[in-house]
Design brief:
Shape: globular
Structural class: alpha+beta
Order of helices and strands: EEHHEHHEEEHEEHHHHEEE
Number of domains: 2
Mean pLDDT: 89
Strand content: 15-25%
Number of helices: 9
Strand order of the largest sheet: 4-8-9-10-6
Low-confidence stretches: none
Distance between the termini: 40 Å
Number of strands: 11
Largest sheet: 5 strands, mixed
């Protein structure tokens, strides 16, 4: 509530909390019930009936700086940047997005490889590629292998952009307790109930930046543009690694089952447990203008 002010012509506090912080999202509560619940929590039935507007944070601009930085990294400078981000602030924001292996409803994760012949890959070849074979990926630069896992076999295969009729090998991995930066839904993970008034206002101003970083990891990239379009996410993931995270969690942009992906920064710590072979029976295509 500290990041909002009472105005004559504003929005209900329930709508603002839902839109900006995903409060009550998925709860099934109707607005009237949510208002009644909030009134009980605040012990103030009159306050929740008033109209509110967000208090603006004048020192923002982190989203704009990220847009400038990603353009510079892709098209002007790669290593010595003219106007770097406030990475201390990014580290603070990542502290709001911590997830552990226990945060997920599963312990088994999957890696897929398209088969180049009729012979399936042995289990020993289903781990992350060796350094000399590691190409550039969404999270890793070429030569620095990460282990990419999907939450389901379908997600793992879909990330390969297969053709109908192709065969793939799917390996299963069991994960120990790990620390992830969870970029699936930043608004749902951040909380306006932590910190003083100025910090809550500042956090709300940076939510669009967190959503933009999450979108970077999910945005489809054409293979021809991958060598340079992956650079911003590689930069982001290397910074996340430097902050002590074991990996990053992000939404899959191609999975038909709402799957999620993990990129693990230390692939040598994991070994495939089982491998199976599957056939790609159908590939779904959705077009738009």
């Amino acid at each position: 509530m500290a990041s909002y002010e009472i105005v004559d012509d504003g929005e209900s506090i329930i709508k603002l909390l839902t839109d900006e912080w995903n409060f009550f999202d998925g709860s099934g509560l109707k607005p009237a019930s949510a208002k009644e619940l909030l009134a009980d929590v605040l012990d103030d039935g009159e306050l929740v009936r008033k109209s509110f507007a967000p208090i603006q944070y004048s020192a923002g601009g982190n989203l704009r700086r990220w847009e400038d930085l990603r353009d510079e990294m892709m098209h002007r400078n790669r290593w010595f940047l003219d106007d770097p981000m406030d990475m201390d602030r990014i580290a603070e924001l990542l502290g709001q997005l911590i997830a552990s292996s226990k945060s997920f409803d599963q312990s088994t994760w999957y890696r897929a490889r398209l088969m180049s012949s009729d012979d399936p890959y042995p289990l020993s070849e289903m781990n992350a590629p060796p350094r000399h074979l590691a190409g550039h990926g969404r999270a890793n630069p070429a030569g620095i292998p990460y282990l990419y896992l999907g939450s389901t076999p379908t997600t793992a295969v879909a990330e390969l952009r297969p053709h109908t009729g192709e065969k793939a090998c799917i390996a299963e991995f069991e994960l120990p307790e790990l620390k992830f930066a969870d970029l699936r839904n930043p608004r749902k993970l951040t909380s306006p109930l932590v910190g003083d008034e100025s910090e809550i206002i500042r956090l709300r101003a940076d939510l669009p930046l967190l959503e933009r970083l999450a979108d970077e990891l999910t945005r489809p990239v054409h293979p021809r543009g991958a060598p340079y379009e992956y650079i911003p996410t590689q930069y982001l993931c290397e910074f996340i690694k430097s902050c002590g995270f074991d990996g990053v969690v992000y939404r899959s942009s191609v999975s038909s089952d709402n799957g999620i992906n993990l990129a693990l920064f230390n692939p040598e710590a994991f070994e495939a447990l089982r491998v199976s072979q599957v056939l790609v029976e159908r590939v779904s295509v959705q077009i738009g203008k």
